[in-house]
Amino acid sequence: MNAAIKLSSPATREFWEIPVLFEDEHLLALDKPAGILTSPDPLKPDCPDLMKLLHAAIADKKPWSRERNLDYLNNAHTPEDETSGVILLAKNKPAFIALANLFSSQKTTEKYVALVHGEPAEEIFEVDAKIAPHPVKLDLMRVDSRTGKQSKTKFELLEKFHRFGYALVKCEPLTNRTHQTRVHASYAGMTIVGDELYGGKFLWLSRLKKNYHLKPGREERPLISRVALHLEELILPHPVTNEPVTIKSEWPKDLKVALKYLRQYSVSG
User: Fold this and answer.
1) CATH number of 107-269
2) Distances (CA, A) of 240 to 40, 98, 102, 205
């Protein structure tokens, strides 16, 4: 069976070849690219969304759906648009209901890796701070001890880049709130690279490399041109068999490239 699912959006002329991370008769886990919506967003009506593209491909009986005999696919969780990594889908309605119950009852474990600006003081720590929607900005969340919902995230330092003030951290949200990891990281003084919504800045090679020269007529692009947050591991009991399931996603190329240059110039300057 094909190890990747091919999708295209005629409206935006975009094409995706999305790796399959896990599959059985009930579940399908994909390696979601950053930047694509998971579900339709009224605030972004012109942006393609993953579920709509998948459903259209199934209706059109594209080869990958035909060879799986698929007539149903649904998501029980909604990874953020800016985030790359694991997304888990149900291939039938009973599995979807059971999967949705697992996510809503917080019987799943999600582990992210994030590249941040700002170095945590401790190697392992938790942020326990209530989160609520911003009263004015519709797409923004904030820490709000009065009206917010209970939210907790565990952080673990993986690597420091002292010279430039960056760090690589593992993030494990222990509750499931919108933008939780991003809000808690910012609250802890670690803005995620590329996360302009919460004060994060882009990472540029010219800021790392001495005597950086760009060829005439070229424009420098950031090493990561999106929020540097990746869902690298999802752990849960199988919704049908109850057997433990661990699904992993390899770090994306842009994150690997950014880390390569941070490591190189943190040492050599």
Assistant:
1) 3.30.2350.10
2) 28, 7, 11, 47
Parallel, antiparallel or unpaired: strands 84-90 and 229-237: parallel
Nearest to 70 by CA among 39, 87, 48, 95: 95
Cα–Cα dist 139/115, whole Å: 22
Q: Boundaries of CATH 3.30.70 in the chain?
A: 1-105
DSSP string covering 52-73: HHHHHHHHTT-HHHHTTT----
Do residues 181 and 112 lie in contact, with contact meaning Cβ atoms separated by under 8 Å?
yes
Reported pTM: 0.94
For tokens 């401790």, the residue is 122
Which of 3.40.50, 3.30.70, 1.10.3470, 3.10.450 would CATH assign to domain 1-105?
A: 3.30.70
Comma-separated ranges of CATH 3.30.2350.10 domains in the chain? 107-269
Q: State the CB neighbour count (10 A cutoff) for residue 217.
A: 5
Per-position pLDDT tens, the chain of length 269: 557 999 988 888 889 999 999 999 999 999 999 988 888 777 777 788 999 999 999 999 999 999 999 999 999 998 888 899 999 999 999 999 999 999 999 899 999 999 999 988 799 999 999 999 999 988 899 999 999 999 999 999 999 998 999 999 999 999 999 999 999 999 999 999 999 999 999 999 999 998 888 888 889 999 999 999 999 999 999 999 999 999 999 999 999 999 999 999 997 65
Q: Scanning the structure block, which residue is given the tokens 């692009």?
A: 221
How do strand 4-9 and strand 131-133 relate by DSSP bridges? unpaired
The four Cα atoms 235, 241, 242, 247 give a dihedral, to 10 degrees, of -10
CA distance 72 to 251: 29
